């Protein structure tokens, strides 16, 4: 029902735009120079070979390693500890207005000459929230009563996620502002797309590795099977 409703809204709004929005024919923008695939990639490689860009790419590819586990695994571990998936999904609803407002607020602080200052300041707080997320997972079985969780536990989870969104968007908006600021206007689209792609990759590969490492790093104990190891998936199944 949810997907059907928003699918209908999407179809109606885009159809209305197609019929009602008229192009401004008076202002004809100057024709941009277009490059072929080979020329574009040659340009990308020449950009990425620049010492400053190369250093920045290395930094941004590794900057999110510290909170990859907290971002990728916390929700899954809470479900594993018995928190209903539908409750976690509902907790995401209050985050929506926050996600809309935060970029507007943060952009005021990233519009200056040093947008990355916001990135640096938010990083230690996001790292600390990773520890707090670990505490939430550890705390879950302690407060679980008859298969349910008290309201105060959900309140703490919502507050934790809200604070996490503040740090996440502070870093995200700051890095986007920096990429826009340093990109050469003559090749702005290519330059900025390259930096944004590296930024996205820097957030995705640590999460993938964190998820892959969950099983090998999880300590398991076997109940009722003395001397039997549960270290591997096959052993745990046995």
Please characterize this protein's 3D structure.
The chain is mainly alpha-helical and about 240 residues long. The chain has one domain (about 40-215). The chain is built from 10 helices and no strands. Helix 3 packs parallel to helix 9 (about 190-215). The mean pLDDT is about 85.
Which key terms come to mind for this protein?
238 residues, mainly alpha, 10 helices, 73% helix, globular
Distance between the termini: 41 Å
What does the radius of gyration come to? 23 Å
Number of helices: 10
Going by helix content, strand content and strand pairing, the class is: mainly alpha
Number of domains: 1
Q: Can you tell me the residue ranges where pLDDT is under 50 for at least 5 consecutive residues?
A: none
Average of pLDDT: 86
Q: Using the alpha-carbon principal axes, give the shape.
A: globular
| Main beta-sheet annotation | none
Total number of strands: 0
Fraction in beta strands: under 5%
Relative helix content:
over 70%
Secondary-structure element order, N to C: HHHHHHHHHH
């Amino acid at each position: 029902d949810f997907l059907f409703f928003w699918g209908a809204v999407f179809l109606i709004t885009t159809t209305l735009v197609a019929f009602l929005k008229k192009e401004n024919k008076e202002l004809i923008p100057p024709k941009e120079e277009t490059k072929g695939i080979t020329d574009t990639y040659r340009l990308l490689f020449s950009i990425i070979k620049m010492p400053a860009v190369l250093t920045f790419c290395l930094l941004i590819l590794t900057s999110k390693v510290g909170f990859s586990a907290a971002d990728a695994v916390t929700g899954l571990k809470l479900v594993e500890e018995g928190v209903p998936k539908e409750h976690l999904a509902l907790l995401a609803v209050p985050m929506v207005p926050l996600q809309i407002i935060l970029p507007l607020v943060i952009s005021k602080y990233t519009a200056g000459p040093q947008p990355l200052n916001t990135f640096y300041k938010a990083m230690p707080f996001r790292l600390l929230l990773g520890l707090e997320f670990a505490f939430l997972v550890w705390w879950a079985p302690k407060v679980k009563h008859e298969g349910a969780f008290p309201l105060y536990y959900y309140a703490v989870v919502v507050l934790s996620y809200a604070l996490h969104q503040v740090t996440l968007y502070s870093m995200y908006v700051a890095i986007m502002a920096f990429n826009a600021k340093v990109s050469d206007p003559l090749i702005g689209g290519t330059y900025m797309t390259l930096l944004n792609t590296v930024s996205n990759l820097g957030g995705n590969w640590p999460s993938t590795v964190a998820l892959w490492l969950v099983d090998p790093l999880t300590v398991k104990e076997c109940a009722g099977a003395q001397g039997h190891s549960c270290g591997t998936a096959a052993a745990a199944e046995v």
